[in-house]
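Running low. Invent one:
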Amino acid sequence: MIQCITKERKQEGYDPMCNGIYYKALSVITALLTISFSLSAEPPHPSGINIRTYHDHKKLERDVLSPNTNFQQLRSEWTSDFEKLLCRNRIDFATVSYFKGHWDQIREIIEGTVLPPDYLEVLISDVCNANCVYCRGGKRHHMISNHFISQTSADQLAEDILRSPVRRMRLSGYVGDPFAAQAYSSSITLGQKLSKTVSFGVVTNGIGFDQKAQETFINAEYVNFSLDAMSEEEHFRLKGRKGFEIVLKHIRDFCSLKSRLQSNVSVRVSFIMRHDILDRAEDIIRELKQAGVNIIIFKTAMKYDDQSRLTPGTWEKIEEELEKLKQRYSDEPDFKVVISDSLNNASEILTNSSIRPSYPRCYFAEHHLTLFADGFFRACCDSFWNNYQIKFGHMDKVLIARDWQEIQRQLKKLNPAKHCSICPRFPNSYNILMNYLSSMNSEYPGYLDWFAHEGLNILSSQCNRIDTPSPMQKNSA
């Protein structure tokens, strides 16, 4: 009956869907569907661009970088957000240099490519030939041990490294020196076996860096002498022994050898910021420059009591005078003066504040392995400060060449925000940027294209005053 009426009415131009009941029901359904779709749809970006609709990556890249598209507002927002990040966090020039020099590799990591670790830091000795009052924030006596990598183990490590993806390496010590008596032969062994295939960096107090060590590491990427003091008396007060003149002689001899052999090694000398540093700063800079040193670094030591005399007024005066010295040599092609910390950064370091990581992933540890003097791989050189002290195997059983993927899997379990109470300057800066870029890349597929063209320049311009050479950056001095 209904079907007949409907058929007849349709022939008369009557549509039952326009009847009141049907119309109201249809209106309700339509409204509900509209609300549902509006809730599930991605809200439009303020710039009016739905960046996720792009399927052509090249077109996206062109549009993001073009000044004549609606992406202008988006680019402006990215610039503003990134500059705010740099203002909130202390990003040093070491990180800037590393990002600029290794951007292709960094981009691959952010985009999810599994890359093997190509950098290894070997803390070869806990034994030292000095007793610095500021070593590890004045807590060296809590950490001291007799651990050092033996010459036999150094031989095995060298063979492992030659078969592994590691191509950059730093030789240093956690609470010891690579050229203290017990570890001396092991350091020489690593240098002799690896210096021709691995880019080497060395950090030493210089006391044991004698002629044989100088000849072994003359083709290193850099050698950093932590002289720290500016006189024999100050050296004794800071390091618990005399040695200032010995280290100066080793520096001069090394620079002379460098000149004679026409080596490209970067010779660096660092000093601890003190309230009276200006008394001899100009003289020591001139003396070291004449000797052939490439970089002089003024740095801050963590928890060093004597630096409590560095009031804001004193610090500003020191920074102002050192900045003048820095500018005086700014046009020198093979020499520069570096101020590693601003007043704000130094305050953070001295009080141990604002250096607790807040990011969820430690990209640094995943691609920059650390081997301790006891033979165990750990997350980083400051892992003893933190709660995440897991050992990733002993060098006698774990081979980098064979097991690097398993080491990386273990390191990915590390959550710095939960496990770490402190992070060194360079790794912290590196991780801040890596976690930020990863987050932005997840939200905006075209972000890394913009960052490569504009973000790196912003990074350089914002950090041009704080310029510490990275332990991993290529020799640019």
Q: What stands out?
A: Residues 124-351 form a domain with the TIM Barrel fold (CATH 3.20.20.70). The longest strand covers residues 222-228. The chain is about 50% helix and 10% strand. The two ends are 96 Å apart (CA to CA).
